[in-house]
Amino acid sequence: DRRVRILMDLAGPKVRTGSVLHPEGEGRLYASDRFQLVEPGDLPRQDGLPVQVVCAIPGILARVHAGDRVHLDDGKVATVVEGTGPGTAVLHILRAPAKGWKPKAEKGLNFPDTDLGLPALTEDDRAVLPVVAAEADMIGYSFVQSADDVQELQAALARLRPADWHRLGLVAKIETPKAVRNLPGIIVAASGRQPFGLSLIHISEPTRREGLSR
After folding, report:
1. Which of these, 20, 37, 18, 17, lies nearest to 93 by C-alpha position?
2. Which of 48, 70, 74, 213 is the most buried (most CB within 10 A)?
3. Range with the lowest mean pLDDT among 53-62, 99-108, 114-123, 198-207?
4. Which residues pair with 199 in a beta bridge?
C-alpha cells in the first residue's frame, strides 16, 4: 500500500560510432595504438593508420583539439587527440582491455573536454516529454551544461503542466567539466523552482601532458 515514485530519464544527445573500416582480420586495437576518428563520408586513410572509425554526428570533430580526451565504448577505451585535420582526428589509445578492443558501430563516444555544441534537450526528448510530464514524479536530465539548459526544460514543462509543473522533481546529471564549472547556476536555476537533486558522474581533470607522453 505504499506509493511508488516514478523517475523517467531524458536521454539527451547520443554520440555514437558509425561504420568501421579496418584491414582483414580481427582489427583489434591496444594501448599505445593510434587510429582515425572521422566524419561520415568517404575520407582517405592516413598512412600508418589503417583503422578508421566514423563519428555518427557530423560537425563534432571540428570542435576537438589536440590534447582533448575521447572515451569510447562506455569507457572501455580511453584516448587522447593527437592531431586533427579536416573531418578527422587522430586518437592515441591510453587505456584498452588487455585482450584488445575491436571497434564496432553503435558504441558510445564521450568527449569530456570538448564543447560539442549539442542541446541538452533533444528533439527525441521533446517528443517523449508529454508522457514524462504526465506520468513521472521525477525527471532525470542528461547532459545538463548550464542554467540555460535547466530553464529550457522548465519552460517546456510549464507549457505541458502550467498549474503544477513545479511539483515535478528534477535530477540533473552532471557529466562534464563544463557542467561542474556551471554547477552553482544549475543549482540555483533548478532548486529555486522545484524539488531538485544531482547525479554526479565521475569526472577527472584533463591529463593532456600525461596522456600525450604515454
Report:
1. 37
2. 70
3. 198-207
4. 173
Query: Cell numbers at residue 155, please?
Result: 519552460
Q: From the CA atom positions of the chain, what is the Rg in Å?
A: 20
Whose CA is closest to 45, among 57, 34, 31?
34
pLDDT tens, residue by residue, 38-59 = 998 766 666 667 889 999 888 9
Distance (Å, rounded) from C-alpha 76 to C-alpha 84?
Answer: 23
59-74 confidence digits (pLDDT tens): 999 999 999 999 999 8
Q: Cell 503544477 identifies what position?
A: 164
Nearest of 164, 161, 163, 184 to residue 172 by alpha carbon? 184
Closest among 37, 43, 94, 46 to 64, alpha carbons compared:
37
Q: 91 near 78, Cβ under 8 Å?
A: no
**Strand order across the 7-10 sheet:** 7-10, 138-141, 169-174, 196-200
Within a 10 A sphere around the Cβ of 31, how many other Cβ atoms? 17
Find, among 100, 99, 95, 144, the residue nearest to 118 by Cα: 144
Contact 18, 3 (CB under 8 A): no
Eight-class DSSP state of 108 = B
Cα 183 from chain centre: 17
Name, in order, each residue with C-beta under 8 angstroms of 76's C-beta and a sequence gap of 6 or more.
Answer: 96, 97, 101
